[in-house]
Amino acid sequence: MLGEVPVRLLIVEDDDAIAAPLLRAVQREGYDVERVAAGHAAIDAVAAGGVDLVLLDLGLPDMDGLDVCRQLRSQGYEGGIVILTARAGELDRVVGLDVGADDYLAKPFSLSELLARVRALLRRSHRPAVVEAAPEVAPAAAPSAAGPAAPAVPDFRLDRAARRVWAGDEELALTAKEFDVLALLEQHRGAVVSRETLMAEVWDENWFGSTKTLDATIGRLRQKLQDSDAPIALGTVRGVGFRLEDTPRDA
User: Which residues mediate DNA binding here (predicted)?
Assistant: First the structure.
């Protein structure tokens, strides 16, 4: 488990025959878990706080699961979202990732595969309360003590240990996949990172979906960097991959 506070999962599934074994499997892993059977109830549960990851069915009785996902992201939810659905088409898969899902499993799926993906997402998206409590995170504020030559607030800073990113004094709200993509590009700043490398490094070996999910993630990340006036930009090298470029602010 991550830290002393139990990881909390929310299962959004209206079919009792699917929800019951899923609930038992997640509880056996040691997670705190809540189950709701409708979209509005899911939105309310996440808004109440404390949910680290959502297992979201698309076929809900009151609203489409894609709309639930879209609303959660628009309201600032930064935890993991795994879509569970009987819809097998690639279009649904891509649309789900476009609206902010981190992963996608088509029914029927094995519980072992689902739990593996849950663990992978939780490793990549540590909760803020856990991260801030970790002793190794405390030095993150140290740059201001480096001497007069170091600015108090650098224009851009990425902290891998804390999984946090700042543009100026503004912290960017990134999903797990957005952070992983940015961290990999930042590691090779100025160089082109191929699409194949990004897919292999950011999406695990169980991912067999369309690479359009990478384009959707890049698009959201690019917009967030622009909105925060970050001094970096995501450049596209057509047919090859992407490059993180410095774009100093105008004087």
Answer: 148-246
